[in-house]
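Many introductory courses stop at the sequence. We go one step further.
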Amino acid sequence: MMKNKTNVKWKKRAATIVMSLCLLMGLMPLKVFAAGSPAQLPVYTIESAGGGYVESDETATFTSSADFTLGAVYNEYTNCVNIDYYNANDPSMLDDGYDILVECNISLQFTNPTGDSPTGDSISGEITIPLPSGYDGATARTIDGVTARSYTETTVTFPVTLVVYSGNAFTQLYVEYHTHSYGDWQKDETNHWRECTCGEKADSAAHSYDNDADTTCNVCGYVRTVTASTPSITGGQNEKWTQGSANELIFTSNAPLSEFISVTIDGQVVDEKNYVKEEGSTIIKLKADYLSTLSAGNHTISINSTSGSATTAFTIEETAKSSSGAATDNTPKTGDNNNLFLWTTMLCISGFAILGTLIYSKKEKNIK
């Protein structure tokens, strides 16, 4: 009998010890966080009227500017973020342009009940919370004027200061969200963008054109002024053509062939049968038959395009000289070298004839 009483006594003591250990373990700190080290916190939400906080699949993150130690989790109000998506959504409290209002409560349990972990009456840092469903990429701010520090596609981050009291650190944020509705393209001389009613801009980029001559942006339709440069002759400047030659004269304008209008020589439009036009940019080949109709001397050719006229001079030279250097024209000219030789020869013959006559006459006299 005594033995049974002893066993019961020890069983009670063992149960007491186990319960004490469990209580102590529950009071032990969860984790020590260094400054800048993020602490993952569960998120509890209220989604509908009359509902209570329900644990969400999402999490929040608190990153402190000082070291701190989290204590035990007692319930859905300890070491967590509670987000009320329904009860706080009072339209009268919303600023213009904002759609919903959310109450966000951040509560941390520190291990030291005196509130000096961390040292002081408050702890600052930043809280990252999930965006409401359907508000990915939305704009968020607190109703007391705190703007969001950063965004991802599914979260928003705010700077926060938690008040520390008796080991608890707590703050409450009222966050309003706005989904962007971008209107028609806005534009200036260099860029285009879409703008929301809240002033947020999207799709900002420089205007897009097909080429330097294109005047209309392919995206927003902005029309720019393009000052076209006057075309110039890039090949065939001051060319020469000799009468009787079978060669063409070739001239090139840097204007595109698609802009070609006409060719003029000395201000007169040339019939298209008298030349060949080719691309690259605009190449004009004057035919030899046509060139032979032009007078010897200087002339001016203009290749006319919608963007202007490219002009240069060229020369028609007289018939080519023979290889001996003499003109091909056989008309006698004063001072010709062949005539001088002929007259000199005839003069010598005449002199010899007169001299012979004188000698013969002298001999006849002597005989008599």
